[in-house]
Amino acid sequence: MANRATKPVSLIWGTGPLKLDIFIEPTCPFCVRTLGKIKPFLSEVGESNVMVELHLHSQPWHLFSPVIMRSILAAATLPDGKNKAWHVLEIIGQHREEFEFKDHASGPNMEATPNDIVRRVEQYSGLSLQEAFKSQDVTASLKRYAKFARQNGIHVSPTFMVNGLIDNRFSSGEDISEWVERVRAELKNKLS
């Protein structure tokens, strides 16, 4: 098993010429708000116009971040994995407080183990993740996300990159129409 080639998992929606990379931490309230806007944004701007790639970005003050990220990527290795990973992202956002710590350092999750967290994700998502959680593909994906974030100077989430460059004009607090307007302007400039 040690010599088995690994295939990192990608979380990409859309096929367009403009690439929007979004770095998220799944239990961050600002990232949860961002996630809720991605599907409507894609619908509005058109999946043939933009490609959105999510990059899971661990933040150490979210203490179970790596376990939760690994659970999302485990879902992505299953059949129809991209949609299952999205489903897990949504349920984590809906139950965010159950995966977090009070003031990032106390509360009921102090007694929780990584297995408890994975079982909680399984319970809410209806998916069996224990075996996939151990996958070397998941490990390769986590390493790839960390390396890519470091190479691009990503420190906080959500962070947005347009065609490979950090774009601080985007934020989780904006209306979807602002994202659409900005992307349409970028597409117009790209085609000019």
TrEMBL record:
InterPro entries linked: Thioredoxin-like_fold, Thioredoxin-like_sf
Residues annotated as domain Thioredoxin-like fold: 17-181
SUPFAM superfamilies with a match to the protein in the record: Thioredoxin-like (SSF52833)
Protein's UniProt name: Thioredoxin domain-containing protein
Species per Swiss-Prot/TrEMBL record: Aristophania vespae
Lineage: Bacteria, Pseudomonadati, Pseudomonadota, Alphaproteobacteria, Acetobacterales
